[in-house]
């Protein structure tokens, strides 16, 4: 039982995933600091006056608990977009490139498929001549150039 667990942990994709999560956490901290200390003050200043940020006071004036802070939401949205861009360009693209060099396609579109007219299975490859589920002969499919 422990040998199987050890083999699972030592697989390459588990290690790559763990390292990716660690890198993503580090980038998350960096992007969060940027949005909290640079973007949020700019958004708060856009609100004007001596307010808590960009938004509306719903209760008593000066009560931060009843302040609808739209600026914080905009800041969180910018944080999310920046963070996902950093993860994509710093983790996903290099990983795709490394895997492509190894001959493995990752994050690619699924190959086109057809539906079996007999059993209605929807995942039969276009080039298949028989259904892999019911064995029914499949009509030939012509694949034209992709535009």
Automatic annotation (TrEMBL):
Cited Pfam families: MscL
Subcellular location: Membrane
InterPro entries to which the protein is assigned, alphabetical: MSC/AndL, MscL_channel
Transmembrane segments: 70-93
UniProt membrane topology term: Multi-pass membrane protein
Keywords: Membrane, Transmembrane, Transmembrane helix
Keyword Membrane: yes
Protein name in the entry: MscL family protein
Organism: Streptacidiphilus monticola
């Amino acid at each position: 039982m422990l040998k199987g667990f050890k083999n699972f942990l030592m697989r390459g994709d588990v290690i790559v995933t763990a390292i990716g999560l660690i890198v993503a956490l580090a980038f998350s901290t960096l992007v969060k600091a940027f949005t909290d200390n640079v973007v949020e003050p700019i958004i708060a200043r856009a609100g004007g006056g001596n307010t808590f940020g960009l938004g509306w006071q719903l209760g008593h004036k000066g009560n931060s608990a009843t302040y609808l802070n739209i600026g914080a939401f905009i800041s969180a949205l910018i944080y999310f977009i920046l963070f996902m861009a950093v993860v994509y360009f710093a983790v996903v693209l290099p990983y795709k490139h490394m895997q492509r060099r190894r001959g493995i396609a990752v994050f690619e579109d699924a190959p086109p498929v057809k539906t079996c007219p007999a059993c209605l299975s929807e995942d039969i490859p276009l080039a298949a001549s028989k259904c892999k589920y019911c064995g029914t002969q499949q009509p030939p499919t012509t694949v034209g150039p992709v535009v």
